Each structure stands twice: as C-alpha cells, then as structure tokens.
C-alpha cells in the first residue's frame, strides 16, 4: 500500500482511534508526524505530551534538547544542514540549519512542559519569537542563562502571565536597563525569583522591586543600611514573604545583622532572630570567603 493511501486511511479514522495510535509514538516521532500534513499537525497538537522539564542548550556546533530523561542532539553539518541524533539513531535534514530546527522542535515541546530552561540562546531569541508568532510560552518556571537584558525582555514578555510562577535569570550584564524587566506583568505576578549577573555595571534598582516575591535570591554590591532598614520595616511585614537570600559583595554582614539586633556583637554564630508582628524571622550569613557573603532571611 502506498504512503498516500496509508495517510488517507489514517486521516479518515475516527479522531479517538487516531489519537490512540498517536499516543503510542515517542515524542520525537510525534514531532516528525506534525510535518507530514496539516491534518496530522492538528491531531498531534491535541495529544497530551506531558513533560516536567525541557532544556535547550547551545554548544559550539551542537544543540541539546532535553525533555525529562530523553535527549536529542542537533549537529551542524558542513553544508549548512542538520543531523539529528536520538537514541542511537541519526537522521539527516537537508537545507535547515541546526539551531533553527532545534528551536522549531522546542516550540512544540515546551507547550507540554512545566519547566523551561534556555542556555546560551543569544541571537536565536528572535528566531524563537518569530516561530511563536502570536502564541505564548505556557510554563510555570523559566530559567534564562547567559542572556542580555533585551533578550530577557523578549522571552519573558511571551510567557503567559497567569501561568508563570518562578523566574530564574543569569544576566550577562546587569545595568540600569534591568528596571525595564520589573515593569512586565510576568515579573509582577511571579512568586519566586533567582537573579544573578556576570557583571554589574550600574544598578540603582530599588530593593523594594523584589518585595512582592514570596521567595527571592539576588546579589547586592555595597548594600546600603537604608536598603536593609527597608527590608526590616517593609518586607518582613508582608504576609506573603517566606525567604530571601542576598549575596553581598564588598559589604560587612555584621552591620547587616545589627539592623535587626543592634546589640549583636559578631562572634561565630552569625545569626540573630527578629520579631515583627508576632512573626519570628531568622537572619544569618554563611562563612563564604569575602568579598562574597550569603545572607539569608527566613520566616521561622
């Protein structure tokens, strides 16, 4: 029987039977099935492919796409094509660049994931946004690694606001432009944040911009006493606050603790308790080598 007759027979099956057949396919085979025809594309998109985490990672000449325990590698070929490696098998794709092919598959996969992690996306952000068109990224958690502020804005703004709960950022350069991210609804409605930077050039961002998060981890270069007082008098009075970790650079952590307990005299404990509106908070710092010190504030 010819391929056309097999395809015609499949597409004329009742939807429930066709979907039962598709559900038995591996995720990579499902993605390939979408490319056969429009009917199969719609049928595959109705299938519930549930993944916990999807990771896209760019290496020199290779992209790795991981979904849970499965890995697909996209290799660059000398003529500009792609070879796809999965489960000991290799498939050559002519006329399609490896990063483009991997992002097209990524755009299908992360529709069915809870966590999305993107490493070294770089200039491929525009390609991803173009492929998404008018659709959104429906994930609860997103991690963007080694990304500029402009590209971070482009990705976060495409995340579904009411779905996104957790943001994890590693910014290449954190500057005054970072404030633009705080205006996004995705930022305002998320519950947890991790935010680090390779280089901090100039960052006058008020620390109050982080206070709506239930839990956050940030770094502060030369934190002022005024900021610590704001944490004590504002953040700790919020019923939603649970925990924060602030990595201090070139700051005295003992002075940080004295804001919460003026009689604190240092020593080996590096820990105080603070009572606010009948809530007990533990403020402490680790023995990490200076100039970096991790200070933690946690509701007891």
UniProtKB/TrEMBL annotation:
Q: Which residues form a coiled coil?
A: none
Output the InterPro entries linked to this UniProt entry.
DUF38/FTH_CAE_spp (IPR002900), F-box_dom (IPR001810), FB224 (IPR040161)
Residue intervals passing through the bilayer = none
Per its UniProt record, what PROSITE patterns does this chain match? FBOX
| Occurrences of domain F-box (ranges) | 7-54
This chain belongs to the protein called F-box domain-containing protein
The organism encoding this protein is: Caenorhabditis elegans
């Amino acid at each position: 029987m010819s391929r056309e007759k097999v395809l015609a027979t499949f597409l004329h099956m009742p939807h429930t039977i066709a979907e039962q057949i598709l559900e038995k396919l591996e995720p990579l085979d499902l993605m390939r099935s979408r490319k056969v025809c429009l009917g199969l594309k719609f049928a595959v998109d109705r299938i519930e492919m549930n993944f916990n985490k999807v990771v896209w990672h760019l290496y020199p000449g290779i992209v790795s796409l991981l979904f849970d325990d499965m890995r697909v590698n996209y290799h660059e070929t000398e003529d500009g094509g792609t070879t796809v490696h999965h489960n000991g098998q290799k498939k050559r794709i002519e006329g399609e660049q490896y990063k483009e092919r991997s992002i097209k598959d990524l755009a299908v996969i992360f529709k069915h994931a809870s966590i999305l992690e993107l490493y070294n996306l770089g200039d491929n952000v525009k390609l991803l946004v173009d492929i998404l068109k008018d659709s959104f990224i429906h994930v609860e958690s997103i991690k963007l690694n080694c990304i500029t502020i402009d590209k971070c804005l482009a990705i976060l703004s495409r995340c579904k606001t009411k779905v996104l709960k957790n943001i994890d950022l590693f910014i290449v350069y954190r500057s005054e432009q970072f404030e633009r991210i705080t205006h996004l609804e995705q930022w305002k409605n998320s519950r947890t944040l991790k935010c680090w930077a390779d280089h901090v050039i100039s960052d006058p961002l008020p620390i109050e911009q982080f206070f709506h998060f239930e839990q956050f981890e940030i770094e502060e270069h030369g934190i002022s006493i005024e900021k610590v007082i704001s944490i004590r008098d504002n953040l700790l009075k919020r019923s939603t606050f649970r925990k924060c970790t602030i990595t201090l650079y070139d700051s005295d952590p003992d002075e940080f603790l004295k804001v919460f307990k003026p009689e604190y005299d240092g020593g080996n404990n590096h820990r105080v308790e603070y009572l606010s509106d009948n809530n007990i908070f533990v403020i402490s710092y680790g023995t990490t080598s200076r100039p970096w010190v991790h200070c933690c504030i946690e509701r007891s």
